[in-house]
Structure formats: structure tokens, C-alpha cells
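Reviewer 2 asked us to include a model.

Predict the structure of this chain.
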Amino acid sequence: MPGCLKKTLFALASLISFVSFILVVVAMGTPKWVTGKILCKTGADLVNATDPELVKFMGEIYYGLFRGGKIRQCGLGGRPSKFTIFPHMVKKLNTGLHVMIIMFLCVAIFFSLVSFGFCILNAIKVPYRAIKGPAGACLWNFLAGGFIVLAVTSFMAAVKLHPLTERIANFRENVFQFVILEERFEDCFWLCVASATAHAVNLLLIAISGIHFPKIKTKTEEANVTAEDIMY
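Predicted model (C-alpha cells):
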């Protein structure tokens, strides 16, 4: 049976793994990874709008991995609309990169659950195989955190290097052209960052569980030393 400290650390690690799993699932299902402000350039150019008048042509956009929405402001009032990334819009985006982000997160979810199971196993008993022990728990946490980092990095690259927000804003816009004035990552995106951080914390906890702390003898134990013990 594992010691009390080891049990506590692995129980805490299993809880963190489960929380990480929940965070990624929630993040994937929410439509607000990025929000931004968009300008209807065509409408502003038609009326030769000055700075104070540009407010009439500024709309909003938000989106996640699967769906989103926007408010078009082209001088005639706001017109809200919603859209889905699949199956049509994704063809106009960097399809391979977007699908890869989703795959990375799905793999991370799987490894988070595996990590959860291995941490519970180590909290209950001492596995007889190394792969089921702390080394295995470290491996699954490292893989889960690594795939989340890959997903987050890929998404940031899609937004910043492949103008994802602009492509989404101009999808099926035959008359008006929109430009991005401002874009920022929202809480749903940072949930994935928090999930990766949680697995890093797990690696630290597992490392601490492997440290053998010296046992402090009490006065009672010292008093029970016999002559035979002294001879040895």
C-alpha cells in the first residue's frame, strides 16, 4: 500500500486530471474562443465615412471551433447572424490546420482520462509494473499537456498567421468586404491553457511523490533501543 503522503498526492493529481478533462470538453463546446470588432469597408468607402461616422459600420464577431456569430453593421443597423464552421465554411479556412486542432484536443481528452485512471490506481495500491506506476502517470500527463499545447499553439497560428477571423467574417459575403479592427482570445481559449497548466502541476506532484523523505523517530522509539540493537 502506498504511504499517506503518496496517496494524498496521487488523489490530488487524479482530481486535477479530471478537472483538466472537463475544461477541455467545455472549451471545445463553447463558441467564444475569439471575439473581435469588424468594419464594413465597402459601406464606409461608399459614403466616404469619417472617423465619427465609422461607428455605424463597426460590427462584432465571435467564434469557436465549431460555430460562432457576427453582427453586420453596414449603415442600415445591426444584422445579427450565426454560422457553423462545418461542413461548408471549413473549406474556405485552412482545413487541415483546423481539423488538426480538433484532433489534438480529442487526443488530449483521451490522455487526460487515462491519466485520471492511472493516478487513482497509484493512490489505491503500488502497481507491480513500472508503466502503471508513477512513470506511467507522468507519461500520460506529459502527453495530455503536450497535445493541448500543440492545439493552443496551432489555433494561435491560425488566428495570427492565417487570418482566420477575416476569413470567417468574409465568408459568403459577395457584396460587402469586412476588415478586422480588433480581435482577442476569450475565456474559452484560456480554459485550454489552464488545462495544460494543470497537467504541468500534475507532473510536479508525481515528482514529489517519488521523493523519499527521512522518517523522524519519536522519543518513544529511541527509548526502545535494546542492547542487541546497539551491538548491530
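The chain has a mean pLDDT of 86. The radius of gyration is 27 Å. We have added this to the supplementary material.
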